[in-house]
Target: ComF family protein
Amino acid sequence: MLTRRALRPFTALLDDLPSQCAVCRSWPARPICDACVARLAPPVARCPTCAIPVPEGITRCAECVANPPPLDACMAACAYEWPWPEYIAQFKFHGDAGWAAPLATLMRSAPWVEPALEQCDLVLPMPLALERLRERGFNQALELARRLAPGKVDATLLLRTRETTAQSGLLRAERLLNLRGAFAIEPLRADEVRGRRVVLVDDVMTSGASLFSAARVLRDGGASHVSAIVLARTGAPQ
Model:
């Protein structure tokens, strides 16, 4: 039986084949063509440590000034607005892992993402709770990370230690409390984090509570630099 690793060269080849753009239906094109990326995911001014949109000339959002997050940098490819929620839902909830490649390409188009991936030592996908992993069949953050930096991805170093109640409907402070103790570094591999530059990868960032909680664990474990790359960012903290 062929393993996922053995199939990876073939899936990478398929990712590069001409396709029809899912947005404008142009052919031949990438699954999301360059014109649609430029039109629907243009670079915007964002806070460098939480990726929330900010007015031109503002270097950091008020929340990050008042309560600096444990991230050195945070990058987002697009706003969580049409058409991206539909495609993210197909990828995340309907088992369509084929979306990983075009969405990762979209992430790579965001400012500062390429340098962050080149300069880091480790790329860690945000881990899923076991129950959600069973429901979805794969970790969407891992599939994105594998296409962003396949040689640096480690899917077992950062662990999800417990289930948490749903984050939706909770205030930001409640989300942070809900996630306390939900992440940990694999105990037998703790030395692998010390002094390393780490990039966290996730699909959607809302309040940032999950990413901040994971980043704090990595900080406590001795990581020298922790940044995050997300596909989509909601428009305002919740």
About this structure: The radius of gyration is 17 Å.
